[in-house]
Amino acid sequence: MSQSQSLGAQSLGANDGSRVAVIGAGAIGLGIGWRLARAGCKVTVFDRGEAGRSASWAAGGMLAAGVETEPGEETLWQLAAWSQRLWPDFRYALQAETGQDIGYRDEGTMVVALTRDDLEQLRFNYEFQRSLGIELEWLAGSEARRREPYLNAGTTAAVYCRHDHQVDNRALVTALKPALLKAGGELREHAEVKGIEIAEGKVIGVQVGDTFHPADVVVVAAGAWSRDLPGLPEAERPPVRPIRGQLLVLKMNPAEPLLRHVLWAPKAYVIPRRDGRLLIGATTEERGFDTRPTAGGVFSLLEGAWRALPGIEELVLDEIVVGFRPGSRDDAPILGPTAVDGLVMATGHHRNGILLTPATVEAISQYILTGKTVTAIQPFLPNRFRSPESAALSGLAART
Fold this sequence. Notes:
Helix content: 25-40%
Mean pLDDT: 93
Number of strands: 21
Structural class: alpha+beta
Number of helices: 8
Distance between the termini: 15 Å
CATH architecture of the largest domain: 3-Layer(bba) Sandwich
Order of helices and strands: EEHEEHEHEHEEHEEEEEEEEEHEEEHEH
């Protein structure tokens, strides 16, 4: 998975103090900026709002490479599994750099079945995921309830994955900001990019307000807003759209938590935090950038969680969060170089942005520093959306 391949004329070799502009200060943009700044690049990260306060703030923080894998996602599983293996070192490096705890928890993830239909679906997913080599444990309902005593008494079975962990996504982005600055990077918040400037097929910088910021490399990590960035050539606009998600935050007693594992129920997932927050998520809606929560979304999440964990009805509803996942045309990330020299994509992560943060940081940074792409992102290069004819003309087809 760590094997790299050259991109020929697209090689950058930016480890010489080259100027890098990263558009988007979510977990991925901040992480890339941190990594490149540590390598000696002159990095500036721009965000249209406050750093880390968009999709990364509204996420669940699940690192569920195993139980989330579905048929048709075998290639994505390889990338997710690599990123999952990178997470411990990424965590330790970030905590050592900042002294901040990012809320990493390794109790594992449990998927439960409540009805006969649920049981059939659970067994199907279990067998499929096991066929990929994912390590899972089948639990009888009684064993699941022993491990999580507040589960619905009618729980028929569960699957446990000890490798699927979680991280507090808000603590993550809160730590990445000072890490970037400590490494020598710059952060420009409330600085919307008005244009990506390109000359003779190569990026030369970004326009922010009345100021032009020269750059040798521009990384597009703007999530659901990536497609509409001004200055992107039409052929290089990533096919990314906002997939709206509503998420609820309840409050429980941290000394007597209702739940310890991340819990996947048939119609919702439930995530316990050490500080007593209990997250319930998340809807999947095609509603553009509408930020208004809906009664139907709140009801469906509460009902789905309540059926698996009835005790939530006694908890206080503390927060309703609306976020926008960057969904691509094939629901997979868009990673790596474009036909424009120096223009690099790191977007389209859909529901896997936090999980894929270490892999994206490593892969994009390696490309910028060495001009090579790691094997794991070969299926996710931007040129996969081009026709064979246009890809050949771009000089990217089969070059990797």
